[in-house]
Design brief:
By secondary structure, the chain is an alpha/beta fold. The chain has a domain at about 5-140 and about 220-250: Response regulator (Rossmann fold, 3-Layer(aba) Sandwich), CATH 3.40.50.2300. About 30% of the residues lie in helices and about 25% in strands. The protein is built from nine helices and eleven strands. It has helices at about 5-20, 20-25, 55-65, 80-85, 85-90, 105-115, 125-130, 135-140, 235-250; strands at about 40-50, 70-75, 90-100, 120-125, 145, 150-160, 175-180, 180-185, 190-195, 210-215, 220-225. The strands form two sheets. It has a nine-stranded mixed beta sheet with strand order 2-1-3-4-11-10-9-6-7. It has a two-stranded antiparallel sheet with strand order 5-8. A hairpin with a 2-residue loop joins strand 10 (about 210-215) and strand 11. The chain is globular, with a radius of gyration of 18 Å. The termini are far apart.
């Protein structure tokens, strides 16, 4: 018997797939066999706190990446970071691992791989709230979750960069999920934001906080989106598309020239 929840998830996934087309959301059309993921080697690491449904998110993104031509290795342990040579064995790492702890040798292997050019991408707590005691890891990601006032609420996501390929052609959209309040590196390239109200924390009303960004850590591309509290959040077509495009961008880390991502928002003497 199919449960109501699984039916909704499957139906939503079909709906999202039907809606997400190049003419609707402006995604670049790649010739058959010519996706940026084609031939790329990807490590997908999932685990940690299961409330964020990393297994169900795995089942969304791994089949899609394989359909794009990627060779995907899936691991449910952080030991993968030392089991493989991350620098040479993979073009991209996707991590869906909320909270928990990472051993120093595992963290070192991950950071050195990204710094040398391996891309990394992720979403919500799986990348942005993984290892709370590891500040160098947070430095790599470019931000860290600190609160989601009100829990699961209605909020709006605003596209602020309409030229970047990750968000080009997308319009603002609504979410019913956790609205992540994150502490952010001021030099990440912000692609989408959200504005907080004073309903659940009166001192943050009107604050604008990044939702999706990209950056570099050394030579490695880093993509993060705070969307994706649970797998059904990706039934929102724009949330899914942003994550897919971010993955496509990050997988080219070793193959395309660096981009200028610095945005010195605190630079003195600049005209506002």
């Amino acid at each position: 018997m199919v449960s109501r929840r699984s039916f909704i998830l499957k139906s939503g996934a079909v709906t999202a797939a039907a809606i997400i087309g190049p003419t609707v959301l402006g995604r670049k059309v790649f010739a058959s066999g010519n996706s940026p993921l084609n031939g790329k080697k990807v490590l997908f690491v999932w685990g940690g706190w299961m409330g964020h449904e990393p297994d169900k998110c795995r089942d969304i993104f791994v089949p899609w990446m394989k359909s794009e031509g990627a060779e995907v290795t899936v691991s449910d342990t952080l030991e993968a970071y030392t089991r493989y040579n991350l620098k040479t064995d993979f073009d991209l790492i996707i991590q869906a691992w909320t909270m928990g702890t990472i051993e120093s040798k595992q963290e070192k292997a991950l950071l050195e791989a990204v710094k040398s050019g391996t891309g990394i991408a992720g979403w919500h707590g799986g990348l942005g709230d993984s290892f709370r005691n590891n500040t160098e890891y947070q430095f790599m990601v470019g931000g860290q979750w600190v609160a989601h006032p009100g829990g699961v609420i209605d909020y709006r996501v605003n596209i602020v960069d309409h030229k970047d390929p990750v968000t080009r052609g997308l319009d603002d959209f609504d979410m019913h999920s956790e609205q992540y309040y994150v502490h952010v590196d001021p030099n990440v390239k912000v692609l989408a934001t959200t504005t907080f109200t004073d309903k659940n924390a009166d001192w943050i009303g009107g604050n604008v906080v990044p939702v999706a960004w990209k950056k570099f850590y050394g030579k490695g591309r880093v993509f993060y989106s705070s969307l994706g509290h649970v797998a059904s959040d990706f039934n929102v077509p724009q949330a899914l598309e942003i994550q897919k495009r971010g993955i496509l961008w990050a997988c080219m880390s070793k193959y395309e020239p660096d981009e200028e991502w610095k945005q010195p928002v605190y630079e003195t003497g600049k005209k506002k």
